[in-house]
Specification:
- The chain is α/β, with parallel strands linked by helices.
- It has two domains: 52 residues, Spermidine Synthase, Chain: A, domain 2; 218 residues, Rossmann fold (3-Layer(aba) Sandwich), CATH 3.40.50.150.
- Helices cover 28% and strands 31% of the residues.
- It is built from nine helices and twelve strands.
- The protein has a seven-stranded mixed sheet.
- Helix 7 crosses helix 9.
- The radius of gyration is 18 Å and the shape is globular.
Length: 283
C-alpha cells in the first residue's frame, strides 16, 4: 500500500482517514500538539491534537459561511472580533468587506498563526491586512473585559474539549452580548447536527434567553464529522433572513451566495425535531 495514512477518530465509532504525502511540520506547543501535513485528497492540512482543523481544499465552505452570514446580516459592520481562528481563514473573509475598519483576532496559541503563515499562506493571507490586530491571549477573558465594543463577534473555536469548553457556555454568551454594540451580531461554530444534537439544542436554548434573535444555520464541510456543520447566530437587532441584498457588498467567494445564505437557515426536519424535543429526550 502506497504511503502512510492518518486517521482522526471523529467519534468513538467513526474515523476519517487520509493518505499522507509528507509531514511538513510537527511540534508540541504550550497548549496542544500541532501538525501540518500534505495529503493526497485535501492538500495541506492543519491538525491540532490529531483533529483536522482545516485543509486547503475544503476550507472555504466553513470560512465563508461563518464570516459572511453575520457580516451581511449587519448592514454596516466596522469592528469585528474573531476568537480562535489562528489559521486566518475567517480574517481573510472579513477583510473582503469594505466597511470593516478593524479586525481583532484573539488566538491563544501563537504557534498556530506562525505555522499557518508558513504552510497555509492561501488561508492566512488576510492576517497581514493593516486593519488586523492579533492578540495572543484567552478569548474568554478578552470578551469578559469588553463592553459595547464590537459590531460582529465570530467564534471559530476547536471542539468543546479542554480550554475551548468555556466558549460553549451560557456565561460566555452573556459576556459576548455585553461586548457587542447595541445592534451587534454573534456567530459561533457549534459542531455536527448529526453527532452533537444535544449540544446544539442547549446552545440554541441559551441564545434564545440572551439575544432577541437566535437562529441556527448549516453548511457542508467534507472533512468534519458527518460532513454537515452547524453555526449558531445571536443578534441584538438584525434578522439574517431579512438582509437587504441591494446594500450588501459584492465580495469574491467560492461557496457563499445570497441564495445560499437564505437557504442555510432552512433546516431539515431531523434538525427541527431535536431543537423542539424535550430536554431529556436523546437523539
Amino acid at each position: 500500500m502506497r504511503g502512510i495514512w492518518f486517521s482522526e477518530l471523529q467519534t468513538p465509532d467513526l474515523a476519517i482517514s487520509v493518505r499522507l504525502n509528507q509531514t511538513l511540520h510537527h511540534e508540541k506547543t504550550p497548549y496542544q500538539e500541532l501538525a501540518v501535513v500534505d495529503t493526497e485528497a485535501y492538500g495541506r492540512m492543519l491538525l491540532l491534537d490529531n483533529i483536522i482543523q482545516t485543509t486547503v481544499k475544503d476550507e472555504f465552505f466553513y470560512h465563508e459561511m461563518i464570516a459572511h452570514v453575520p457580516l451581511n446580516t449587519h448592514p454596516n459592520p466596522r469592528t469585528a472580533l474573531v476568537i480562535g481562528g489562528g489559521d486566518g481563514g475567517v480574517v481573510r473573509e472579513i477583510v473582503k468587506h469594505p466597511s470593516i475598519e478593524k479586525v481583532t483576532l484573539v488566538e491563544i496559541d501563537a504557534r498556530v498563526v506562525a505555522n499557518a503563515r508558513e504552510y497555509l499562506p492561501e488561508i492566512a493571507c488576510g492576517l497581514d491586512d493593516a486593519r488586523v490586530e492579533i492578540r495572543f491571549e484567552d478569548g474568554i477573558e478578552h470578551v469578559r473585559q469588553r463592553e459595547n465594543t464590537y459590531d460582529v463577534i465570530i467564534v471559530d473555536s476547536t471542539d468543546p474539549i479542554g480550554p475551548a469548553v468555556g466558549l460553549f457556555s451560557a456565561e460566555f454568551y452573556r459576556n459576548v452580548y455585553r461586548a457587542l454594540k447595541a445592534d451587534g451580531v454573534f456567530v459561533a461554530q457549534t459542531e455536527s447536527p448529526i453527532f452533537n444534537s444535544r449540544l446544539i439544542r442547549r446552545i440554541q436554548s441559551d441564545l434564545k434567553e440572551i439575544f432577541p434573535i437566535a437562529r441556527l444555520y448549516l453548511t457542508t464541510v467534507p472533512t468534519y464529522p458527518g460532513g454537515l456543520w452547524a453555526f449558531s447566530l445571536g443578534s441584538k437587532e438584525y434578522d439574517p433572513l431579512e438582509v437587504d441584498w441591494r446594500q450588501a457588498p459584492q465580495v469574491a467567494t467560492r461557496y457563499y451566495t445570497p441564495a445560499i445564505h437564505q437557504a442555510a437557515f432552512s433546516l431539515p426536519p431531523f434538525v427541527q425535531e431535536f431543537l423542539e424535543a424535550p430536554e431529556e429526550e436523546e437523539f
